[in-house]
Amino acid sequence: MAKQATKRRRDDDDEDDVPKSQDEKDLEASRMPFLSHLVELRDRVRNAAIWFLLAFVVCWYFSAQIFEWLKGPMSRAWIAEGLDKKFGDPHLVFTKLVEPFWIEISIGLWAGIFAASPFIFHQLWKFIAPGLYKRERRITVAFAVFSALFFICGALFCYYFVLENLYSFLLGYAKDTTGPQPMLVMSEYLDLTRDMMLAFGAVFELPLLILFLSMVGLVTHRGLWKFNRWFIVIAFIVGAILTPSPDVVSQVMMAVPMVILYNLSIVVAWIVTRRREKAEAELRAQEEVADAKARARRRKRDEDDDDEDDNNDDDDEDDA
Fold it and tell me: Read out DSSP for 124-176?
């Protein structure tokens, strides 16, 4: 029993002697009580709300200019279909007295979210950063920055390459001399444009999602490549669901970029998976070497303990 207790104490001493890394020391220093976390959360939410209110006021003041910019694809499609010669310049109408006011409020809200998003992400980052290692902090910052960039790229792609083709298709019904006369409602146009840009912004986050899943080991490039043919079908289904208009043009315009982004993500997953598997192999080799050294130390200590016990027994016999 004494020998076993001695071995346990020595094993515990070996574990205590393992030095902590600098990341672990920084993490220990940044810990705070639960109430302090609540106070920190309150301050970050308050600061994010202040930035959002400031951005909302500024965007609401320039809501007319923003709405004119959003009308650009429709105006270009109107001219491309020759409707300016038939009906003159395009005009948006409203069917309720309060509709123009709520249009300005809606533009201010959504544009304010986009404008204040860097500051909101910064406040979110300041809240979660103390609980992360330095390496995780760098990765989190990169994900926050690139997620915003990818979302903006998706919205701009929709604005410059999709909306004009979509509106040309929809306005084509008014080209016939006997066709219906278009009367475009402000709220419906804004809702369609906003939903399309949000949908494309969300779709362009696909590479970051697959990058994250490959970094944590949930997916690999091998599985993604095998799933490629099924993803093509899913892309067209998702395009039909996310695009608010029932036409095939917007569905195809969303599904094709999704398929392209998915295949580019396979290349990214291949790079990440290869690095992760290499790092895991090196870590396993280091652990095997460390385990072998630990077993050798324990074996030597056991032999020393046995020799010591034998010597004690011999001394006891001599004394007897």
Answer: HHHHHGGGS-HHHHHHHHHHHHHHHHHHHHHHHHIIIIIHHHHHHHHHGGG-S
